[in-house]
Write a structure and sequence with these properties.
single chain, alpha+beta, four-stranded antiparallel β-sheet, 6 helices, 10 strands, globular
């Protein structure tokens, strides 16, 4: 009886510990190098030239969103090296579950009220990126993900920024995108652990009999 009680208590403690074991995770898309030539954060850049490409070979070949960093304009065919007016920045969660998160974006030359805003959503949740920073200005912004954004990312298994320049004439640039999050194991994994622990308790009791 004591052994059974001990195993049940141990299983419960392990299960509770597992469900509350959140830990920090940081994923960066892009290389935080000042747009490829040392432009300061939250400052004024030298007059940019459209078509500029300061990407590394790896960035240019990327498909996770790094391909739209260190270029000007980022998603404006004919005025930048990328051939599409849409792009997605992808942060895979690797089987983990977001509990809270912030997104940091180093962006430049946003003039939404002059040339029209780009359309942005986080996993389908619309965002209002109608920023009027001014020509040559860079701004590092941090966005706190709310319950809707976190739920959508967890459902998809990745946090995804979708950008659409189709309705805008704005020349824009990005240096990097960074997700800072607290993550925990997926609820399904917790359930599996609990079931396994309870199974071990039952096996131990059966063997003792």
């Amino acid at each position: 009886m004591k052994s059974r009680r001990f195993m049940l208590v141990l299983s419960f403690v392990l299960l509770i510990s597992y469900t509350t074991m959140a830990f920090p995770l940081t994923i960066t898309v892009g290389d935080n190098d000042g747009y490829g030539f040392g432009i300061p954060d939250n400052g004024t850049a030298p007059n940019p030239t459209w078509g500029y490409d300061g990407r590394s070979t790896a960035e240019a070949a990327a498909t996770n969103g790094a391909q739209i960093t260190d270029v000007y304009s980022a998603i404006f065919p004919g005025y930048g090296p990328n051939p599409s007016q849409t792009a997605s920045v992808i942060f895979p969660l690797g089987g983990l579950h977001l509990t809270s998160a912030t997104l940091t974006v180093d962006m430049g030359d946003f003039e939404a009220s002059t040339y029209g805003p780009i359309s942005v959503n986080f996993n389908g949740v619309l965002q209002g990126w109608a920023f009027q920073d001014g020509y040559t200005y860079t701004v590092v912004r941090t966005f706190v993900l709310g319950p809707a954004e976190i739920a959508a990312a967890n459902l998809a298994g990745a946090f995804i920024i979708n950008l659409d320049h189709t309705g805008s004439m704005d020349f824009i640039a990005f240096d990097y995108f960074e997700l800072n999050a607290d993550v925990a194991p997926l609820p399904g994994a917790v359930l599996l652990l609990g079931t396994g622990l309870l199974g071990l308790v039952g096996l131990r009791i059966k063997l003792k009999k």
